[in-house]
Each structure stands twice: as structure tokens, then as C-alpha cells.
Write a structure and sequence with these properties.
This protein is mostly helical. About 80% of the residues lie in helices and about 0% in strands.
Length: about 130
């Protein structure tokens, strides 16, 4: 995951021509931060995908054998909980107009109240 991602002037100009001038300007000013954030996001999504794959294997084992170990059961519960978090955050983001402004606000309020809305893969990076 050490691949360097930088936006070229041409890519920023393309964004500007398509009507995202303010976004392109901010992205240009903060390109290193944006690249780092995007790499971290993609890494975390990859981690969640791996965890989901492992949880599906546990679920198949449970359906075949009718039982799983306590550790596997806990892992499956945690992953289902993470998936529900992602659906709860992701679906409104794409379906509700203006939610791109609302979701960060809700995340901040939840954080102040001690509620973690991020899946576990995203929380692990904050702890490290």
C-alpha cells in the first residue's frame, strides 16, 4: 500500500471544467492530505472486505455444522455489526440529497456522545 497517488494539473483542470472549481481548488491545495486520506480509506475498506470474507466463511461453517466456536461467533457478530454501520452511513449518503454535508456533522455529534459509527477497521487506525 505504498503506492504514491498524486493528482496532476490536467486532472485538476478537468475537475474545474466540469464545474467543480471549488472542489478542485481545495483538492489542489490539500493534495498530499487528500491522497493520504484516500489511501487510508481504501486500505480500511480492503480490511473490511477481508473481514467480511472471513465472516462469510464462519457463517457457512455454522450452516453446515450447526455450531461454531465462541471466538468465531464473536467475530461474526462484530462483522455483522460493522456491516450494519456501513449500510447505515453509506445508504443515506447516496440517497438523501445534501447528506454529504449532514453525515460529517452526525459523525461529530456521535463522537462527542461516545458513539462510534465507524466500522472496526477504521477505528483500529485511530488507535494506532
Amino acid at each position: 500500500m505504498k503506492e504514491k497517488v498524486d493528482l496532476s494539473e490536467e486532472e485538476l483542470n478537468l475537475l474545474e471544467r466540469r464545474g467543480a472549481k471549488e472542489f478542485a481548488r481545495k483538492l489542489g491545495e490539500n493534495s498530499k492530505k487528500a491522497s493520504k486520506a484516500m489511501r487510508l480509506f481504501l486500505h480500511n475498506m480492503g480490511t473490511e472486505a477481508k473481514e467480511t470474507k472471513e465472516a462469510s466463511k464462519i457463517l457457512v461453517k455454522f450452516l453446515r455444522e450447526g455450531k461454531v466456536e465462541q471466538e468465531e461467533e464473536d467475530e461474526l457478530k462484530q462483522q455483522v455489526y460493522d456491516l450494519l454501520k456501513m449500510v447505515g452511513i453509506g445508504v443515506p449518503f447516496f440517497l438523501i440529497p445534501g447528506s454529504s454535508l449532514l453525515i460529517p456533522f452526525l459523525m461529530k455529534i456521535a463522537e462527542k456522545r461516545g458513539v462510534n459509527l465507524f466500522p472496526s477497521a477504521f477505528s483500529k487506525d485511530e488507535e494506532e
